[in-house]
Amino acid sequence: MRVRLVLAAAALLTAAPLAHAGGADGHHAADRPTGTSVRDGHFTNGLFVDAYGTVADDATVTLSGTYRCLDDSAGPVFVSSTLVQGDRSTGIGGTRAVCDGHLHTWTNSSVVKDPAYVPGAARVEATLLQLSGTGLPLPRFLATEKADVALR
């Protein structure tokens, strides 16, 4: 149920765009000095999108990247992603995050048909989102990333 809430919240809410920090330069995300969220000069939370995604023959789209978050004591944290190609935009899965201060990989996949995505240029909008509060959990954006990617 909570995963559905994360996906719905990510689809309905818009986060502010940030500079691209994807892996197109060949450097691993751990080598980057800062993430998308810095507090008092210290790294807090970060999210990065890999430079490419895949489209399988059965129309399964897979996106990936890395993230780091420090604290999930206020509620579960998820990595959600949306794929944009042309005038089409679709939420692609949601992954439960482990917030222990270490760098982790994320991978989201979904079967997308009618029409299916095709290899070529696309854009990924990813969000590190925490659900917190009593009753109906409310989303709190920990980090966001918008990145141009190549679908293979």
Please explain how this structure is put together:
This protein is mostly beta strands and 152 residues long. Helices cover 7% and strands 51% of the residues. The longest helix is centred in the first third of the chain and has 11 residues. The protein starts with a helix and ends with a strand. The N terminus is likely disordered.
Protein traits:
mainly beta, Immunoglobulin-like, nine-stranded mixed sheet, globular
In a nutshell, what does this entry contain?
With 152 residues, the chain is mainly β. Helix content is 7%, strand content 51%.
Our estimate of the beta-strand percent is over 45%
Q: What CATH architecture do you see?
A: Sandwich
Please give the domain count: 1
Measured on Cα atoms, how large is the radius of gyration?
A: 15 Å
Characterize the quaternary organization of these chains: single chain
Shape: globular
* CATH level-1 class: Mainly Beta
Structural class of the secondary elements? Answer: mainly beta
State mean pLDDT (0 to 100 scale): 79
Low-confidence stretches: 1-41
How many strands, which pairing sense, and closed or not: the largest β-sheet?
9 strands, mixed
Span of the ends, CA to CA: 32 Å
Helix content: under 10%
Count of individual helical segments: 1
